[in-house]
Amino acid sequence: MIHRNAPLTPTGRLRLARCVVDDGWPLRQAAERFQVSHTTAARWAARYRQHGHAGMEDHSSNPHHQPRRTPAAVEEQVIRLRSEHRIGPLRLAARTGIAASTAHRILKRHHMPPLAAVDRATGEPVRRYERARPGELIHIDVKKLGRIPHGGGHKVLGRAAGSPNKDRRNGAGYAYLHTALDDHSRLAYTEDLPDETAPTCSGFLARATAWFAQQGVTVERVLTDNAWAYTKKTWHQTCRDLGIQPRWTRPWRPQTNGKVERFHRTLLDEWAYHQPYTSDAERQAAFPDWLDWYNYHRPHTGISGHTPASRVTNLSGQH
Questions:
Q1: 3-class state of residue 111 by DSSP
Q2: Among 31, 33, 40, 208, which is disulfide-ready with 180 (CB 3.0 to 4.6 Å)?
Q3: What does the pLDDT look like over 88-104, one tens digit per residue?
């Protein structure tokens, strides 16, 4: 790759070399004409004499001999361990007896993608996609969240006194957070519902579709996992009534629905577990403001720092 401040391109080098070799210009005269040093002019002229036109291209700067380079057997071991166990440079270094920086360079030299960019199950690079317009695909998923008993949970009272929700009969129970998230804009709609049965899921879909319509988004397709509620006739009938095409992820491939999975992780980090709450009502009261901030004000790294609302026509202005 040519340096951005390089005075000569391959074409300029060829012209300089021809002036010296073919036309007999003195080196200093050619160097002055092309605004380079006389040593540079001599180098390109020598390459032209030896290699002709092909000698004007940049050569690799790698040394011809590298006596301290990592042995090929060690490199093969690093690549094999990475492929078999999906581990990073630190753990590879511990297993092979080399420095972590060396393991990193080996992975880079062999074009091995970072772990964050591969599927942990198969080791294949993750195929990322994004629909072209809002409403073309809506991701739906349910996040089960333990409710906070009155007086606070374990974050307030400690583990021993604050985990009654683990007792299904006498505890505070669970919240089922149903979320519909637009693939293109990442605009999200979430409800706290008592269960994840087929009627509950179908009712949520109807309300989510109406909410997106209010934002100027027409839902065309909906993608869910293969949970029981999404395979029942109730779900199919609701999709038909709303004019929506249902889609399902492949079994054991939750990353297909990864956008809403990632939203739920953000929801837990920035709302549910962001601070200690003394009751479930207190936490629920904080949710509308958080969701409004997520949709309209929070920069989303998955869409180049824009807000979800900014990707829906006129929505951010109306808000």
A1: coil
A2: 208
A3: 999 999 999 999 999 99
Segments forming the whole domain that contains residue 87: 72-117
Strands (E), the chain: 138-146, 174-182, 188-193, 221-224, 245-248
Q: How confident is the model over 168-181, as pLDDT tens digits?
A: 444 568 999 999 99
Same domain, 47 and 77: no
What is the domain-level CATH number for residue 166? 3.30.420.10
Residue 59: predicted pLDDT: 80
Mark whether 76 and 52 lie in a shared domain. Answer: no
Q: Is there a contact between 315 and 215 (Cβ–Cβ < 8 Å)?
A: yes
Say which residues have a Cβ less than 8 Å from residue 260's Cβ, sequence separation at least 6. 139, 140, 141, 179, 180, 181
Domain identity same for 286 and 149: yes
> How many other C-beta atoms can be found within 10 angstroms of the C-beta atom of residue 207?
13
pLDDT digits (tens, 9 = 90+) for 201-219: 999 999 999 999 999 999 9
- Structural domain includes residue 79: yes
Residue 263 lies in a domain: yes
Task: Give the chain's length.
Answer: 319
**Full-prediction pTM beyond 0.85?**
no
Residue 167 pLDDT exceeds 60: no
